[in-house]
Amino acid sequence: MPTVHQEIPTASHSGLPGGTLKELIDASLYMPFPFLSNPHESEVTAGVDAWLRAWGLTDDPAVADMIVRTRPAQLASYNSPTVGRDILQIVANQIAYQFVFDDRAEELGRRWPGRLLPMLCESIGILRDGQPPSTPLGAALTDLRRQVQERCTPAQAARWSWRSREYVHGLLYESVAQTHAVPISTGVCTTIRSLTAGVEPFYPLYEAAQSREVTAEEFYHPVMERLRRLSVDAAVWTADLFSAVKEQRAGGMINLALAHQRARQCSLPIAVRLAIRQINDTIREFEELYEEIESELSPAGVGYVEGMVGWIRGCYYWSRTVPRYADAAVAAVRS
Questions:
Q1: Distance CA 273, CA 261 (A)
Q2: Among 61, 78, 270, 297, which is least packed by CB within 10 angstroms?
């Protein structure tokens, strides 16, 4: 059974801003899903550390420190509170891998865009064709692909590979946006953000976690398609609220709050309020559509949608406490 921690407060709905950015978010964000965590979190934390060491990804002290500050197993636990230990370990390994890969791609994309291409092409070759790796990151991805193929059906594994390739392509789009002289529009920003979020590659694992297959009628239902889109946006945009200060200081562009700030030429607190309004509307639409379709779903279909709920819930509770986004807890609200 998942664990409920009552000491972690949920977001209030008063809309009253607090003294810091984190307090503003907590006061205004609509979060109807209560906090849950997976009872296997501590074991999976050790498993992630061992997996990263095995592939040499934490040999660099800076990467090892980044993993400590991002707590990938904690994010997996909060996002996937009801799955078994085997699925949770894959989710946690993939989150850790994506943090390492994403930070490396961001560094290359900003400083040496041409050097980003071999890195991304290696990943596409592994994901699409099973090509042998040539770097430690590629070797880790190859092993992650093996884990998914051993646990998922061929169709689920194929969806995992496809969504993972979309994530890789998104990092190239982000690099183009970051190096372009003209600021990008909010719409372009959110399109790129939906790809760089890297959330949808996890959804086939929630298919695999069910005791029966999600039916084709359920999986391809238009409402289910919309739920997938809404859940990804709500999850990653919520993380954007807490990471806005960090991204602003680093010169980042692919962030919902910063996109609103550019579009309105306003202060960051005002931009965060605009982003929260957009997130709240997204979560409410998700709730309404889920209520509309839930009675038509099989238990496997319900479990699959609950995996989407997990990412909305988990990204909020993880973002508000993780050291990676600690700046939000000290940034004063002045608007």
A1: 10
A2: 61
